Amino acid sequence: MLSEIDVLKPRDLDDALDMLHENPNGLKIVAGGSDIIVQLRDGVIKPSRLLNILPVKELRYVRKSGDRVQIGALATYNDIVTSRLTLDHAWPLVQAAKQIGAIQLQNTATLGGNLGNASPAGDSLPPLYALDAVVVTQSKVGKREIPIEQFFTWYRKTALKPDELIVAVHFKALAEDDRGAYMKLGLREANAISIVDVATVLRGRSSGETFDEARVALGAVAPNIRRARACEQALTHKPITREIMKNAATLAVQDAVPIDDIRGSAQYRKDVVVSLVYESLDEAIFG
Amino acid sequence: MPVAIGEMPLRIERTVSFKLNGQPVTVRCPPAYTLLEVLREQLHVTGPKEDCAKGECGACTVIKDGAPVCSCLVLISQAEGSEIITSEGLVKDGRLNPVQNAFLDEGAVQCGHCIPGMIVSASALLMRNPNPTLDEIRTALSGNLCRCTGYSKIIAAVQEAAKNWRQ
User: Is residue A6 within 8 angstroms of chain B, CB to CB?
Assistant: First the structure.
């Protein structure tokens, strides 16, 4: 019953960390609320107390420090879409943020919330994998910097400890010579949960379209986000042609282990992976 | 079935203050109730509607601190200190705002159920961008579902409203 749930309201970050420390197992963290409120109403989760971290305003920022983009856990998708900084240095994430729900959701849903909810169809996650992001968590004891691939441990499971809060994400800013794109297929264009989504980042460009590093991340095709390793290898250290892109896209299927569900069959998802990886590379390289 | 006193479920209540359509309000209610529930059931402001309760249909759209949000996905405790505007609050001195008038003039309303949300989303758009393109109007309304009108007259009404908004 929603009427039996209390909501704690911290004054600031220290206060929130104190509350988590004092209630190590009894608090469910709420940021924007767009996932949690649905789960509460459906009875999927039954916490006795919620920790509403929206008042912790110091966690709402998008900034650059040295060559790294830093995004606070309470930055909303709208903050990401409207920031010049993310547009210039993290455009695959902007492309994802633009397609997450409608404006009403983009105004409330937060990046930290998408990380904490840990859905395999969380649209901000493939771009963060492709950008090689680090998740920063904090407790009264101190901060931890966790590479994103270690942060997500399994289906809806993360490395976050009960007394910790996700406070930020940071990653190396994309440079002008870098390439990247995000592509999503939903059941319709607006407000749809991803059937498959793909983020691609290519860095370290030398002559022509030759790159030192490729990261291709697949969403909604496994219990958590997967990197397409064979695909990545096929893209590095040689000039990328359409032939190479086609071959790399085919290899991406090796890392997809999708299930049949209401939004599409496993086989359909595998076919979509090939198309979306190709299209995202096409968009990244040829615009 | 009657419930014995000893088995009465625990009900937690907290006090929340915010501004609703320009007026300060204070409510006492369970803090995990949604803003939508409190607006409708406790404050009897029934412009915002509950349809999907998942943030997909936009019938519950209100403006919170200048931005359109789904009031079904905001806890009442998250509304503390905020400024909320519903379709009722867009009426000034008994006069409809340009969006409300344009919806009437263009015949953009059929069953009417989605209309308060549509009007709030459209007004929020014109507040920050009084000269929107067709694409910007469509995007701004992409989170508001209508099952009757086919949207054409709604879009036309917002274009018409934009003209009057700028004057």
Answer: yes
